[in-house]
């Protein structure tokens, strides 16, 4: 391993990624380099000063980039950042507890494991034959900390312990949760919130192979494309840059969130930025259109004699759909499936657009009917804004 090269790329995420790609290619070409890498990892865990310095530098480089991208995505800020190294001194205690319960076994090549064969889960390896620790052991230490220590520090009960990790790790988390259960923990509050893969039309994304698109460049491209579309559709629009950024960000976020998280996704720009169909821009455009109607009407006033309004099928459809908002939010939260809320919002947008095209609103001669329909427009706009907000998406007043 070229340690000078790794030291040189610290502080530059692009150079760090390129070094990772080159190192992965070298390992593919020469199996001896894989063994060299394993030995360096063992040295890292044993406290080798040079390896530790490189590792800490790369961790800080990645953290800064993650924080930068989290801000760009307008994500909630984290109260705590506990990396894997935080649990390093907590792993011996887990190993000792496993030994005390006679759960830790030693294999033929020196590896240490928990036998989960009776549960159909094979063996959970804690220590490899070369002495290196595993992700699974660090996950056990993480769980123990979260259950034993964190609630006391925060002075509150642990509501959920969620692991948002891709589908490939499903078996590993089953092993980890079962092992913690064998140690006496109630793991009902722990859940693996798994998700599928995102790929490009030309093939799967792979950091190791260099087939990647950086999130930063993706968001810039989304903003650029959104601005071009906005200039075509509404050249007189004020604050084009600000709205283009909102639309571009919504397009990328919604495209991900509208899919069931277990599904694999193929990222296609034409689908992502379309102003029609089940897309973020379509929902934003519907909201902006409803707000435009309300601005023209000045205000939506509830009719004094609602019982005298004859409700048509289009109006009833909007009312029914609005009444389903709470259930959609609860179902999405309970099952950790944001696509439930996303698809509800799309169905609401479709329903309110059908209503708007089928019956007159501003042109309605009957004032009571007109005001009632404006109330439906106002309520629909508010629900769209609230729902998009829950998905982390802005709802522009104009587009």
TrEMBL record:
> Cellular component per GO?
cytoplasm
EC code(s) of this entry: 6.1.1.19
Q: Which family does the similarity line name?
A: Belongs to the class-I aminoacyl-tRNA synthetase family.
Q: Which SMART domains match?
A: DALR_1 (SM00836)
Looking up Gene3D superfamilies in the UniProt record yields: HUPs, Isoleucyl-tRNA Synthetase, Domain 1
Annotated Pfam families? DALR_1, tRNA-synt_1d
Molecular function (GO) terms for this protein are:
arginine-tRNA ligase activity; ATP binding
Per the record, what are the reactions this protein catalyses? tRNA(Arg) + L-arginine + ATP = L-arginyl-tRNA(Arg) + AMP + diphosphate
The alphabetical list of record keywords is: Aminoacyl-tRNA synthetase, ATP-binding, Ligase, Nucleotide-binding, Protein biosynthesis
Q: What is this protein called?
A: Arginine--tRNA ligase
Q: Name one GO biological process term.
A: arginyl-tRNA aminoacylation
The DALR anticodon binding domain is annotated at 283-399
InterPro entries listed in its UniProt record: Arg-tRNA-ligase (IPR001278), ArgRS_core (IPR035684), DALR_anticod-bd (IPR008909), Rossmann-like_a/b/a_fold (IPR014729), tRNAsynth_Ia_anticodon-bd (IPR009080)
Which domain of life does the protein's organism represent?
Bacteria
